[in-house]
Specification:
Elements (H helix, E strand, L loop, with lengths): L8 E5 L2 E4 L3 E10 L5 E9 L2 E2 L3 E6 L4 E9 L4 E13 L6 E13 L3 E5 L3 E3 L3 E10 L5 E9 L2 E2 L3 E6 L4 E9 L4 E12 L4 E13 L3 E8 L1 E2 L3 E10 L5 E7 L3 E2 L3 E3 L4 E9 L4 E13 L9 E12 L2 E9 L8 E8 L1
């Protein structure tokens, strides 16, 4: 604008949008719209911090002077750039004008996270593994998740215009083809209007084959006494298992934790209420401690026969009964075990 002494000058500062970690150059332009030369001094600050003024002497009528100011986007937010042009007529130092101008550098930041919820699967079964991608930024973003199963790339999953703070999820079917580990890797790329961000995660699905061996050893008893059956169950898997047994004479035992390669022994009493053989049947159930009991447990069954001995007569003598033409004999015995 022109002042009362016919001096005219304008000042402009350009706005900018950058991403965190980037540097932009804000252009400050001073124009002499007077009809004669002017001296110009441009004072300016970045985010409230004063910078070294720029001086331009004898700027001709209609001419402009520009300079670029570097602004670093160190953190998400707004960085104000404020400037003031002090212009003075060369021919009349008392004729001056002061013109302010300002602009904002908007610093944007994209943010994304991805996480895989790993699980265990029984050998030969299929498990659905969730992959989750979150827009942890403050602006909407388009997101693409690239992932692989056991090193084999799968079809990418795309999610458009995911709002700030929102999460998108999808399930990945994983087949337990052999015992061991199946790696799953995922990378999410997020694109906002100005910036990009990436994140990665990797997990592994455990393919489980539970294993148990069962051995039963009997100890016979006598009528009215107790026979015993020793039941040994070995954890033949590579995982810590939960194991319990069920017998037809004592029911189900509490569950116990057994480490790989270890054996748990139960001694089961068999009451000898009747003389003769008794069949004792046992079923051992074992499953990976980190899984549910109904997820592919190892179930083994065996049986043994215990003998409960009864009372038997001990014959002490046999003799003929006289005068009966050999029809009768007399037997004498004592009761013994």
């Amino acid at each position: 604008p022109c002042g009362p002494c016919d001096i005219c000058a304008t000042l402009s500062v350009t706005n900018a949008d950058i991403c965190v970690g980037e540097t932009t150059f804000v252009t400050i332009q001073a124009d002499n719209c007077s009809t004669e030369p002017v001296d110009m001094v441009v004072s300016y600050s970045i985010d409230g911090v004063p910078q070294t003024p720029q001086t331009f002497l004898g700027v001709g009528a209609g001419e402009s002077r520009t300079f670029d100011v570097p602004v670093v986007g160190s953190a998400e937010g707004t960085i104000p750039v404020d400037a003031t042009l002090d212009a003075t007529l060369v021919s009349d130092p008392l004729c001056s004008a002061s013109i302010p101008a300002s602009a904002d550098v908007i610093v944007h930041e994209a943010c994304a996270t991805v996480w895989i919820v790993s699980d265990a699967v029984c050998l030969g079964d299929t498990v659905l593994v969730p992959i989750n991608a979150n827009n942890c930024g403050t602006e909407p973003a388009n997101m693409v998740v690239n992932y692989s199963v056991d090193g084999v790339p799968q079809a990418p999953q795309s999610f458009l215009n995911v709002g700030a703070g929102e999460t998108r999820s999808f399930d990945v079917p994983v087949l337990g083809v052999s015992e061991g580990w199946i790696p799953i890797e995922a990378v999410v790329d997020a694109q906002t209007a100005y910036c990009t961000a990436s994140a990665a995660d990797s997990q592994a699905v455990s393919v489980v084959q539970n294993c148990a061996t069962l051995t039963m050893t009997e100890s016979d008893g006598s009528l009215g006494d107790t026979a015993w059956v020793a039941i040994d169950v070995e954890n033949c898997s590579v995982y810590t298992e939960a194991i319990y047994i069920t017998t037809n004479v004592a029911g189900q035992t509490p569950t116990t934790k057994v480490v790989p390669g270890a054996t748990r022994t139960w001694n089961v009493p068999v009451p000898c209420t009747e003389a003769g053989p008794q069949t004792v049947t046992c079923t051992a159930t074992a499953w990976m401690l980190a899984m549910n009991p109904d997820e592919c447990p190892a179930v083994v069954t065996d049986s043994v026969e215990v003998i409960c001995s009864g009372y038997e007569p001990l014959i002490t003598s046999i003799w003929d009964v006289g005068n009966d033409q050999g029809r009768w004999v007399r037997i004498q015995f004592d009761r013994s075990i």
